Amino acid sequence: MSKILNILGTKKFWIELVIMTVGMTITAAAVYYFLVPSKLIIGTISGLSIVLTKIFEGMGIFISLGTLIMIINIILLILAFLLINREFGAKTVYTALILGPLTDLWAKILPWDAKNAAGEYILANPNPVTGTPSIMGDPWLDLCCFVLLLSAAQALMFSINASTGGLDILAKIVNKFLHFDIGASVSVAGAVICCTAFAINPFRMVIIGLIGTWINGLVVDYFTATLNNKKRVCIVSKDYDRLRKYIIDDLQRGCTMYEVIGGYSGEKSIELEALLNKDEFSKLMDYINKNEIAAFTTAGNVSEVYGFWNKHKKKSRQHAEKR
């Protein structure tokens, strides 16, 4: 109990709770406003559940959509605890539980088929494929809006080692064991699920769903790279020791030193390499410019970092405080 109370008392817990709630609010909006009205089956657990419900009905077995989603999510949550880690599984329990209520909340506060002041339905355009009304009146536009919102929410969740549930768990498993990019993992897991829609949907709608699943993976990678973007900075300078101390003592980051030989001059020098976030990189460049340090600097983007990068900084802060 004391361990749980300690976790609840941390700033990190409440920040991540807010992020998860915002992410699931976005996901619920994407499902309610763009997926449900258009009848699109994207590679998601909700889409798989819709397909299985129809198949079971044809066999004379009646299971509600909500029950089927819950059963599949429970199985996937167990896999998350066993194959990924407890933190990821615990966060996904929360996100999986609030998706349904948040979807209902959108339906109450801003129903998609709401009438305007004149009493006429705002959404009068039917989907040309399904014949049912949809937000945009076109399956491709519905698809684009859904994918953009869902991908943003997924990237936000992955950045704090959480997920929107369902498909994201499968994607995280593929990412961990096959070492695919997280976007490619989403595409692989989603494509398999999306193909099940052949059992209930016209060929054109299935193809739209498959294309949407592929685009979803690309957009997730883009958003993830943007959120997790780091800078690998390489500096060659005679004032390398001064820069080393600034990186370690002020930025509280580690660095690696290499002996290099200039190809033109043949002179030996020291190259510093450090991995920094955007704010730290900006501070470093500002320090170099203000102090007029002669340095040859290159920087490249790094979208994923594994290991103890953040833990190292935490330890260095504790060491600085003790001093």
Structure description:
The protein is α+β, with helices and mostly antiparallel strands and 323 residues long. It has 2 domains: 2-227, no CATH class; 229-322, Alpha-Beta Plaits (2-Layer Sandwich). It is built from 12 helices and 4 strands, in the order αααααααααβαββαβα. It has a 4-stranded antiparallel β-sheet with strand order 2-3-1-4. A hairpin with a 6-residue loop joins strand 2 and strand 3 (268-276). The longest helix has 28 residues, at 11-38.
Summary keywords:
single chain; alpha+beta; Alpha-Beta Plaits; 4-stranded antiparallel β-sheet; 4 strands; 63% helix; disordered C terminus
Outline:
By secondary structure, this protein is α+β, with helices and mostly antiparallel strands. The chain has two domains: 226 residues, no CATH class; 94 residues, Alpha-Beta Plaits.
